[in-house]
Design a protein that fits this description.
Length: 128
């Protein structure tokens, strides 16, 4: 799963197609590999296809790798919003659901949990 880069995949035109998923073996797939510049340098092969579940797992894994520098965003000032804010301004992978009303910075749930104050609290809980 770690070799899957969500940006290298595009949704299948009809929304789904016959599989199997190259990750989990599920019989229906929703995304297929794009022809990227790096991919064109490789020997010819069939496009990889993955299901929606594996694609979402790869997006979450990629989003969790991003970290905001301490002091840049204040998680205490952020509020959860229900309106569409577009994509996260930190990882650019997930739907933004938290916003700082002062700076208008919008982040996804994963990036919000990875903000420095939240990360320190999670580490303290794990140590107990």
């Amino acid at each position: 799963m770690s070799e899957i880069k969500p940006g290298d995949y595009i949704e299948i035109e009809k929304g789904f197609g016959p599989g199997p998923c190259d990750c989990c073996g599920y019989k229906w797939v929703n995304f297929q590999e794009r022809m990227t510049y790096d991919r064109m340098k490789e020997p010819p092969r069939m496009n990889r296809k993955i299901c929606k579940k594996c694609y979402e797992i790869a997006k979450r894994a990629e989003s969790s790798q991003f970290r905001v520098l301490p002091g840049v965003l204040n998680p205490g000032m952020m509020t959860r919003v229900s309106k569409d804010l577009g994509r996260c301004q930190v990882c650019d992978n997930q739907k933004a659901v938290w916003q700082d009303p002062e700076t208008k910075t919008a982040v996804c749930e994963i990036c919000y949990q990875n903000l420095p104050r939240h990360q320190e609290a999670a580490d303290a809980k794990a140590a107990d």
